[in-house]
Amino acid sequence: MTVYFIGAGPGDPELLTLKAQRVIGECPVCLYAGSLVPPQVVACAPDDAKVMDTAAMTLDDTHAEIKAAHERGEDVARVHSGDPSLYGAIAEQIRRLNADGIDYQVIPGVPAYAAAAAALGQELTIPEIAQSIVLTRMSMQSTSMPEGETLENFAKTGATLAIHLAVRNMREIERVLTPYYGEDCPVVVAYRVGWPDEMFIRGTIADIRKKVRAEKITRTALILVGPALDRGRDFKDSALYDPEKPHVLRPVVGVDLVEDHNT
Q1: CATH of 3-107, one of 3.40.1010.10, 3.40.50.2000, 3.40.50.1000, 3.40.50.970
Q2: How far apart are CA 50 and CA 67, in angstroms?
Q3: What is the pLDDT of residue 262?
Q4: Contact (CB, 8 A) for 8 and 16
Q5: Residue 211's closest CA among 199, 219, 203?
Q6: Phi, psi of 96, deg, nearest 5
Q7: CB 239 within 8 A of CB 245
Q8: Do 137 and 87 form a contact (C-beta atoms < 8 A)?
Q9: d(Cα 191, Cα 197) in Å, to the nearest integer?
Q10: DSSP, residue by residue, the chain
């Protein structure tokens, strides 16, 4: 018997990986986070499968279902939104599985920031503008942030920020980020990415709070911040396809190549 932690992606059933779809279709038990995962994502479960929405369940409740399945010798599809490695709350579940000697596997999924960037038709890492992405969140009413992992510290890098669980704290985001990114820095609030009612609100650090308030968005949103989001900004081409910079897969006659063993 195995518990499969499955990344369902942000909401679009077609963003399930082939492996995820196959495993859900084979498991006699399917537990999914219905507040973040649409029922259509688990519609591929067997007709006779036990499919449960865990939105109103506690950790004890879900673990009890898993233990019962384990005693019956039945595999469990534990379906989470996005990718389980990012705010998936699987660590505490795995701890209990290990304590009870229950096998598990993790199947990755499309994270919300990647799906949002795809829907926007943008790259989040632009040459000489932003080459890093910081995935973070704000404390609010959830678990507190570790010391040093502050929004201000991340803002000092100038990287593209993907801020989770923070749409109700737009005032604080504006206050903290303005000194580092400037009030004209582009911001995109991605609401329910991959769902039929998905919405993308574009603005700047100075005006995004007002736009979000007008749409009455209070949850299920990802905030992207950084100069890489500026669609009209000029930038230098990357070296990847530069004819003046050959590499092992595109050599130039008469140019000696030094293979980079770090890539």
Answers
A1: 3.40.1010.10
A2: 14
A3: 55
A4: yes
A5: 203
A6: -70, -35
A7: yes
A8: yes
A9: 8
A10: -EEEEEE-BSS-GGGS-HHHHHHHHH-SEEEE-TTTS-GGGGTTS-TT-EEEE-TT--HHHHHHHHHHHHHHT--EEEEESB-TTTT---HHHHHHHHHHT-EEEEE----HHHHHHHHHT--S-BTTTB--EEEEE--TTSSPPPTT--HHHHHTTTPEEEEES-GGGHHHHHHHHHHHH-TT-EEEEEESTTSTT-EEEEEETTTHHHHHHHHT--SSEEEEESGGG-TT---PPPGGG-TTS-BTTB--TT------TT-
Domain ranges (residues) in the chain? 3-107, 112-229
Instruction: For residue range 200-246, list pLDDT tens digits in order.
Output: 999 999 999 999 999 999 989 999 999 999 977 777 777 666 666 66
What whole-number distance in Å separates Cα of residue 78 and Cα of residue 57? 13
The whole-angstrom separation of Cα 24 and Cα 4 is: 9
How confident is the model at residue 117, as a pLDDT?
Answer: 96
CATH number among 3.20.20.105, 3.30.950.10, 3.40.50.20, 3.40.1010.10, domain 112-229? 3.30.950.10
User: Beta strand pairing status for 2-7 and 76-80?
Assistant: parallel
Cα separation, 6 vs 81, in Å, equals 8
Task: Give the confidence band of 248 by pLDDT, cuts at 50, 70, 90.
Answer: low
- Give the C-alpha separation, 226 to 209, whole Å: 16
| pLDDT in the model for residue 235 | 73
**pLDDT tens digits, one per residue of 73-104:** 999 999 999 999 999 899 999 999 999 999 99
pTM, full prediction: 0.85
- The length of the chain in residues reads 263
